[in-house]
Design a protein that fits this description.
heterodimer; A: 805 residues; alpha+beta; seven-stranded mixed beta sheet; six-stranded mixed barrel; B: 223 residues; alpha/beta; Rossmann fold; four-stranded antiparallel beta sheet; 29% strand; binds adenosine-5'-diphosphate; binds magnesium ion; P-loop_NTPase (chain B)
């Protein structure tokens, strides 16, 4: 029986090889791409899921009432973690966490190392298993260092790392550390990343010693493990006394300033966020929102593409079933029952699907390296090699095969014996299904195309928008060497002094956009001004900052060349001026704990943060000997490449042991658009695939329709129909479907894109042309697809077509 | 020994064509004994095919009684009915209705597959049948590679392989020339001698003459 089915399946597939090929190609591409996209999504979604205690680990943050509503604050102060553990029940374990880069030296090697500064609980909470050395107290000592296998390999090669001594540059001193433990390399799906782990107390003076016992200096994150069985909401509620005790001032001030309390009616509340949500959380826009749109969008696209390919399969199978009516009828008269027929036809579908899945996996393997580069992902097929996931995968493939292959099989097995024998098929109902499915296909394609266009438009807008500073002529790079910042800047100034293509040099503790090193920090300062709480971003700058970045002074003056004379002066931006609400802003002061600062100038607002955020109040300080992290060099516009090389050479002579990580600010801005770019590539390739697959289906349908209407075409030509009239006759039904798809998809696309654009305070206006363009593209491509066959049919000799009937 | 194979009692078939009720078969009374060779005659559209299909249980009477081997077909469930015809009835069609994608051998074998006959037994049965119809040399050909007469031979072989008690042949020679027709009719006569009951629909007087009884149909009635 099986052999009989198998034979007839192969013979049928071969007989209809055009359609088999169209189906196999479509399904192969769909399965291959779905596999890649699914892998990407699973990879994203599996972030931080590998920790054994992951279910009970939380990131601690607070909801603070501020002038702009609730702000989520993940920065915590030095005494916070210990106090929380001691004063609130339910804290099983807790660790402070601060990540930064350090310069590590071993013999003659100097290496930049990603460093996690943590408390000893860290290794008991997170599953970063120690494979060698001290498994009990790897970093309890402040002179111990634990490192990953990879880092050890980089530093020591094949030597035994345990017991070795390395030095780490801290406060301009080489401090020796003893290697106590080697940590197993962790999966790429960890949002906590590091090469080495040090005790929290091993940080530099500025980050640790200075902050000890201070509740007002917040500079690190805190992770905790909740006691078994305790609900996070319960825990959050039980922290009320704790906040009352330690944040009384802040709470009283918030009440006094009339800020809105949070959903629980509190002005400051300790909250915890599950570890698995951390990667998807947005702490920057009010209440923390956890957003897994990206991976789900990608999953969604992969399903849509599979759907489109399956629709092609269903449509072709149903359309082709008329050729097998006699076989169906005959088999029934020979004693086949419905079940047997169903399994026969379903089996044929499975054959096609198996073939396509096999080829699809092959395709995915071949495309994987390109995919990884294009989407900057570490996701690989190994991501999917997890038993429960595999079962899910196999199950969904079976389900798809059951539906796409089973539905036509069911239709065929249900046909009446006599009707099938007579070759009669009630086609009307099935055409309606076919048409609806095709409308859906093209609707999806149009949705994705218009999404791509809108996204692209918005990203172009963000890329080219005037941000209020000179991004084309300014090179920025991190001060990543051993020299003291001020010293390094001075040397750089001296070296580049005579270069005609260097306009000016400055530095600040902040970066605009994202630099090559990927590091960035923000410092926000809160103080009282005339009995009100005021928040501002704090930027410490070197001389010529305003000039180097071409910021516009709208009131007052810039900092003087002799910066020391301005150490008690500040320049504020318009947003800050507005917040302070003074009649004579230049006569006002900002009073902090240590000193009072005169406002000497107001600069025009510029986008120092990304375009998904409003321009916040900001204050420029000219504090001496501050930790300035980044240099900015403005160069003349003539020969940018030469200028870049000059700066690089200068830096290499000043700091010969470290890499020059400079880039123009417009490249830094481009880096901030990475997520959007990835999304464009994703949706863009999705839309291209969607339209191609839809057109494969359309092409197949046009083949069948032309074949079915051959005689009609012949008769019409004989009675005088023109080629164009016949082409129109044959195409208009399909074009109608595409137009309906357009009408249905556009409102959905509009609504979705509008919603997405709301994430950006600076955004394009949606206009109908984008959507018309998307629809136009779809119609045009569809038309070209059908044209091939129909024009050929319309121009063929009518006598021939009649003779074959 | 007179043995009743099937009997029709006031069997009627009506269909709704638009708002009209059309009677295709009108109160047919018929007894078929085992071993009979009946020729159904009548002009085109008189209801011959409809009657054969209803007897063959591919179609059903809308009224009246139909008893097959003592079992009341008219009140039977679809499942039992198909079991019944799978077991006892073989069809031969004017248009042969061979499955194009299967070879001669496979076409003949198919009914056995649906009866779940064991592989070795199947081989023997098909080989017997090929032998008997003298088409051993053609067993690996596909239907389109055969002449009409040869295709009908395969059709008959396929109808016979399940060892049916009744063969229903709807204008089995309608697409054949007179020489081929004669061969097929000889074959039927031979089969009938071996005990197979045959009901054939035909236009041809000479074909009808092979039968042991002629029934004339006109507008769905026996005349
Ligand atoms: N399902 C049906 N619905 C309506 N009319 C039918 C149907 N089946 C057959 N007929 C009609 O019944 C009549 C008898 O048909 P048929 O049994 O094929 O005649 P014959 O085989 O004697 O030529 C014809 O007029 C035919 O059009
Ligand atoms: Mg007939």
């Amino acid at each position: 029986m099986f052999k009989n089915y198998f034979k007839i399946a192969l013979r049928n597939l071969w007989k209809n090889r055009t359609f088999t090929a169209l189906n196999v190609v479509g399904l192969t591409v769909a399965f291959g791409v779905a596999l890649l996209l699914g892998m990407f999504a699973v990879f994203q979604l599996s972030f931080d899921r590998f920790h054994d205690h992951g279910d009970t680990i939380y990131k601690v943050y607070s909801e603070d009432s501020g002038p702009y509503g609730i702000e989520a604050n993940t920065s915590k102060s030095e005494p916070f973690a210990a106090a929380l553990r001691d004063e609130v029940t339910g804290v099983e374990k807790i660790t402070r966490y601060s990540g930064s880069g350090v310069l590590l030296t071993y013999q003659d090697k100097q290496l930049g190392m990603g460093t996690a500064y943590v408390d000893p609980d860290f290794f008991e909470m997170f599953s970063f298993p120690i494979v060698k050395g001290d498994t009990e107290n790897p970093i309890t000592s402040e002179s111990s260092v634990a490192m990953t296998e990879q880092a050890a390999k980089r530093i020591f090669g094949d030597e035994n790392p345990i017991g070795q001594t390395v030095t780490i540059l801290r406060d301009e001193v080489e401090v020796p550390f003893n290697v106590t433990a080697i940590i197993e390399d962790f999966p790429d799906t960890s949002s906590i990343g590091f090469d080495i782990v040090l005790n929290f107390k091993s940080q530099n003076e500025h980050a640790y010693a200075r902050t000890v016992g201070r509740w007002d200096m917040e500079n690190h994150e805190v992770y905790m493990q909740l006691s078994e069985g305790l609900k996070p909401e319960q825990f959050e509620k039980s922290t009320a006394d704790f906040t009352q005790l330690h944040y009384k001032n802040e709470i009283d001030n918030a009440k006094r300033d009339g800020f809105e309390p949070n959903a629980d009616g509190l002005y400051r509340q300790i909250k915890v966020l599950p570890l698995a949500d951390v990667r998807f959380a947005n702490f920057n826009q009010g209440v923390v929102s956890v957003n897994r749109t990206m991976p789900y969008l990608v999953l969604g696209i992969s399903f849509l593409i599979l759907f489109i390919a399956c629709v092609n399969f269903i449509n072709m199978s149903i359309a082709k079933s008329s050729q097998r009516l006699r076989e169906i009828g005959m088999r029934k008269t020979l004693g086949a029952n419905k079940k047997q027929l169903f399994f026969q036809f379903w089996g044929e579908s499975i054959l096609v699907f198996l073939m396509s899945i096999g080829l699809g996996i092959l395709l995915a393997v071949v495309l994987l390296p390109y995919f990884q580069t294009l989407f900057r992902t570490q996701a690989s097929l190994a991501t999917l090699l997890n038993p429960s996931l595999l079962i899910l995968l196999i199950f969904s493939v079976l389900l798809i095969t059951l539906i796409a292959g089973g539905y036509p099989a069911l239709l065929m097995s249900r046909l009446g014996t006599l009707q099938s024998l007579k070759g009669k098929l009630q086609v009307n109902g099935k055409n309606r299904l076919r048409n609806s499915l095709m409308v859906l296909q093209f609707g999806i394609a149009i949705l994705l195309i218009s999404g791509t266009l809108v996204l692209w438009d918005q990203v172009e807008f963000m890329r080219t928008k005037d941000l209020g500073f000179n991004k084309d002529q300014v090179i920025a790079f991190p001060l990543n060497g051993k020299l003291n910042d001020q010293k390094a800047i001075e040397l750089l100034r001296n070296t580049l002094q005579d270069k005609p293509n260097i306009v000016s040099i400055t530095a600040s503790n902040n970066i605009l956009g994202i630099g090559k090193d990927g590091n960035r920090t923000t410092s926000v300062l809160g103080f009282e001004h005339k009995g009100r709480g005021v928040d501002t971003h704090m930027l410490v700058v070197d001389a010529d900052y305003v000039e180097t970045l071409d910021l516009n002074i709208i009131e007052g003056r810039s900092f003087r060349k002799n910066l020391v004379s301005d150490s008690l002066s500040v320049i504020i931006n318009e947003a800050m001026a507005k917040q302070m609400n003074e009649d004579d802003i230049l006569a006002s002061q900002i009073t902090l704990d240590d000193a009072s600062y005169n406002i000497v100038g107001v600069i025009e607002d510029f986008n120092f943060q990304e375009l998904d955020q409003h321009i916040a109040p900001m204050t420029l300080f000219a504090l001496p000997n501050w930790n300035l992290r980044n240099v900015y060099v403005k160069v003349t516009s003539q020969n940018l490449e030469q200028a870049y090389d000059d700066v690089k050479t200068a830096w290499n002579t000043i700091e010969p042991n470290v890499e020059f990580q400079g880039s123009f600010l417009n490249e830094n801005i481009e880096r901030t658009l990475r997520n959007e770019r990835t999304m464009i590539t994703m949706i863009g390739s999705g839309s291209i695939l969607a339209i191609i697959l839809s057109c494969i289906g359309l092409f197949a349908m046009s083949l069948l329709i032309v074949a079915q209407r051959r005689k009609e075409i012949g008769v019409r030509k004989i009675v005088g129909a023109s080629v164009s009239a016949i082409t129109v006759l044959l195409t208009k039904d399909f074009l109608k479907l595409v137009v309906i798809a357009f009408l249905m998809a556009t409102p959905i696309a509009w609504w979705t894109m509008n919603k997405w654009l709301q994430n950006y305070p600076y955004r394009i206006d949606l206009n109908i042309w984008i959507f018309l363009a998307a629809g136009g593209i779809a119609v045009l491509i569809a038309m070209l697809t059908i044209a091939v066959k129909t024009i050929k049919a319309a121009t063929s000799n009518p006598v021939e077509s009649l003779r074959t009937e | 020994m007179k043995n009743t194979l099937l009997s029709l009692n006031e069997a009627t078939r009506t269909v709704n064509s638009g708002s009209n009720k059309v009677t295709l078969l009108d109160n047919i009374n018929l007894n078929v004994e085992v071993g009979e060779f009946i020729s159904l005659m009548g002009p085109s559209g008189s209801g011959k095919s409809t009657l054969l299909n209803c007897i063959g249980m591919l179609d059903h009477f809308t009224d009246g009684g139909y008893t097959f081997l003592g079992e009341p077909v008219h009140s039977m469930k679809e499942k039992n009915r198909s079991k019944l015809y799978k077991e006892y009835i073989g069809f031969v069609f004017q248009a042969y209705h061979l499955i194009d994608e299967l070879t001669v051998y496979e076409n003949i074998e198919t009914p056995l597959l649906y009866k779940s006959v064991k592989s070795s037994e199947r081989k023997a049965m098909v080989a017997d049948m090929l032998d008997r119809f003298n088409i051993v040399g053609k067993k690996d050909l596909f239907p389109i590679q055969l002449s009409g007469g040869q295709q009908q031979l395969v059709g008959i072989a396929r109808a016979l392989i399940g060892k049916p008690k009744l063969i229903l042949a709807d204008e089995p020679t309608g697409n054949l020339n007179s020489k081929q027709s004669e061969e097929i009719m000889e074959l039927f006569a031979q089969l009938n001698k071996e005990g197979v009951t045959i009901i054939q629909a035909t236009h041809s007087e000479s074909n009808a003459a092979y039968g042991s009884r002629i029934i004339n149909l006109l507008d769905g009635k026996i005349v």
